[in-house]
Amino acid sequence: MDYPGNLFVVAAPSGAGKSSLVKALMELDSAIQPAVSHTTRPPRGQEKHGREYFFLSPEEFDSMVRRDSFLEWAHVHGHRYGTSRHTIEERVAHGADVILEIDFQGAINIKRIFANAVLIFILPPSWEELRSRLQRRGEDSAEVIELRLQNAAIEMAQAQKFDFVIINELFERAVFDLKTIVHAQRLKYSAQRRARADTFKALHIP
Ligand SMILES: Nc1nc2c(ncn2[C@@H]2O[C@H](COP(=O)(O)OP(=O)(O)O)[C@@H](O)[C@H]2O)c(=O)[nH]1
Ligand SMILES: Nc1ncnc2c1ncn2[C@@H]1O[C@H](COP(=O)(O)OP(=O)(O)O)[C@@H](O)[C@H]1O
């Protein structure tokens, strides 16, 4: 599907720092809009319905699946998460740059629909650091942390399918890398659009 805006998809194992990085990017770049996903996971301490996620009951999620309201959805860490069609299609059609924080399965599905989407994978500097970030975040039980670490091995094996990989060791450095990818993509697409417009003009195609 072709569209006027840019679509960025960020995936990472739990605790690698993707939410912190995306938040920092949005503070620096007001032109980029987040896509808020739907989930059956219960909210964490400070999370608000409609801000981090739309928190749904399993029945509400089922109903959205039946109505074909999701562009993609997946089972992740024992819960369901999905990107609504409405959120993405409307924004990209209006030329907005949208950033999605979703798991690797969702990222690969989005790339099938939007071939120009830029897939970015965030890696932690080490296993020890990943574990200690999950522990320091203090939002998940020891059991949930173990499950997320087990899944991290499967998730990290997918990094090679992504367009870019950022190692989030020094936070400021990783934000800079993310910002650079976003800017480079914008330049590339505006140059391509200009070249296409010039070609059409030269060929007298309206
Ligand atoms: N496929 C898919 N994955 C999602 C979506 N929203 C969130 N996720 C992923 O679900 C996983 C768990 O998210 P969350 O429970 O917020 O934990 P966190 O990764 O530790 O912040 C992460 O890999 C998210 O990127 C979505 O709409 N679709
Ligand atoms: N580069 C970094 N160095 C140290 N701590 C970090 C770094 N990036 C993120 N963190 C911390 O690690 C924890 C997990 O980050 P978070 O953004 O919630 O990860 P994710 O969204 O990938 O699950 C948070 O407490 C966050 O403040």
UniProtKB/TrEMBL annotation:
Domain Guanylate kinase-like: 5-183
GO cellular component terms, A-Z: cytosol
Broad class of the protein's primary localization: cytoplasm
This protein's record includes keyword Nucleotide-binding: yes
Binding site for ATP: A12, P13, S14, G15, A16, G17, K18, S19
First-tier enzyme category under EC: transferase
SUPFAM superfamilies, sorted: P-loop containing nucleoside triphosphate hydrolases
Localization of this protein: Cytoplasm
Catalytic activity: GMP + ATP = GDP + ADP
Keywords of the record: ATP-binding, Cytoplasm, Kinase, Nucleotide-binding, Transferase
UniProt GO MF annotations: ATP binding; GMP kinase activity
Family label: Belongs to the guanylate kinase family.
Reported function: Essential for recycling GMP and indirectly, cGMP.
Protein name listed in UniProt: Guanylate kinase
Native organism: Polaromonas naphthalenivorans (strain CJ2)
Source species taxonomy: Bacteria, Pseudomonadati, Pseudomonadota, Betaproteobacteria, Burkholderiales
